[in-house]
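During the first year of the project, the team set up a workflow for recording each protein of interest as an amino acid sequence followed immediately by a discrete structure-token representation. This format lets reviewers and collaborators read both layers of information side by side without switching files. As required by the reporting guidelines, we include two representative entries from the current panel. The first entry is reproduced here exactly as it appears in our internal archive.
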Amino acid sequence: MRILIVGGPEKSCGGALRPAEERLRAAGAETERFWPLRTEGLLCSGCGACLGAGLCVADPRGGDFLRAAAGCDGFVLAAPVGLFGLGVDFRNLLRRASELAAHGGKNPFAGKPAAPLTVGRQSRRAAAELRELAEALGLELCELTELLPARMEEEEKT
């Protein structure tokens, strides 16, 4: 089982994620981290370049995210939270991935479990926005403790 841990910068999220990552590894999961690059606050301009190329010309790292998502069985979404809600780079990565997945044919996120976590300042608004972005990707939300056992039970049944 492969779990993709998507988070903010190592400085702000790395230490908070170590216990969760160690717990997943102890349970037999292979983990990989994906940190979004700085996008300078750019939002989707609706240029449509992703429709043909399969990647965002404003943020080519979005294509890397889709490829990493296709090869994993579940996600930990560790969103950095500041004074004004979710970190802009994290938010933009999920929004662009949602657009690319919608236009690129097969959605690599659909039906996969995801544990949404907010790191830093805790706010209900940021947590709700993170859940909304995850659901827009087609992810099934769960608690971190449910992430690995739920997938292992499904594999044993088949």
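The second entry, processed by the same pipeline in the following quarter, appears below.
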Amino acid sequence: MPSTFDYVKFINDGFVSQQLYAAKLGQLGPMDSDLPLNERYSKIIEMFGHLFEEAIEARVYVPRRSWKNSERSYLDNPELREEFVAELYDIILFHRAILAYAGVTGEEFAEIATKKQAYNQVRPDHNINGTEPASQSPSAELQGSCPSALF
């Protein structure tokens, strides 16, 4: 077992993984330049659906009634903890598939994630280190026309 997890390599390996999976199904994969955009978008939407399903499965391991005594959780049960972590891993598998179909390499993801993390450390509308109010417009947030989208 490796001592570290190379996320950039993991993302890059996802291109080959998804390509092989698509080939088994007789479909075009993320590395096929002739994969039509509408099919590429459909695969991304499909993978988001799977990612959300895995997030829901992981959520099941977190007690929803914190006031209830003796409710079992992943925090006090090694078997449940392993299952919880396995569900979290499934989430990043589908994250990787989304990146592959979107054509985002590990290097590109790492570069943008680094920039975004640096911005998050000083963002003006952050409740810990900022002094500006957050946008109150959900539509502006969704469309990226708000200060927090300017990283």
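For the second entry, the following points were noted during internal review. The chain has a mean pLDDT of 88. The longest helix spans residues 78-102. Both points are flagged for discussion at the upcoming steering committee meeting.
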